[in-house]
């Protein structure tokens, strides 16, 4: 199973492989950093900074077809209502994003 889908990227870029490679490089650099920030904000219950991290993560994950929509929605609900737990969602989000990054690195020979 692939943990990403580049259909939207290809539609947006129109098969410009150099630009797609650059987008993948940016994704592989920024998404793990943003995920680390989100993990910290959730652990510290810093709702406003968690919202900011989600705001950065969500469009990248959607563009790259990473299947975590439900988890992102649950974390957004946590930010809004502050009365639910999201440990399982954060754990799943971390696992799926890690697998997506590994898959992208392997498929596009990124180091």
From TrEMBL:
Which InterPro entries did the record assign? HPT_dom_sf (IPR036641)
Q: What does the record list as GO biological process?
A: phosphorelay signal transduction system
On the tree of life, the source organism's domain of life is: Bacteria
SUPFAM superfamilies noted in UniProt: Histidine-containing phosphotransfer domain, HPT domain
Q: What is this protein called?
A: HPt (Histidine-containing phosphotransfer) domain-containing protein
Q: What is the scientific name of the source organism?
A: Mesonia hippocampi
């Amino acid at each position: 199973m692939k943990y990403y889908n580049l259909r939207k990227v290809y539609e947006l870029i129109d098969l410009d492989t150099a630009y797609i490679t650059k987008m993948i490089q940016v994704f592989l650099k920024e998404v793990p950093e943003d995920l680390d920030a989100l993990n910290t904000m959730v652990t510290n219950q810093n709702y406003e900074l968690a919202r900011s991290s989600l705001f950065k993560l969500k469009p990248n994950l959607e563009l790259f077809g990473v299947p975590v929509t439900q988890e992102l929605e649950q974390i957004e609900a946590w930010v809004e209502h502050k009365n639910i737990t999201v440990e399982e969602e954060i754990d799943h989000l971390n696992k799926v994003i890690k697998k997506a990054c590994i898959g992208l690195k392997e498929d596009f020979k990124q180091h």
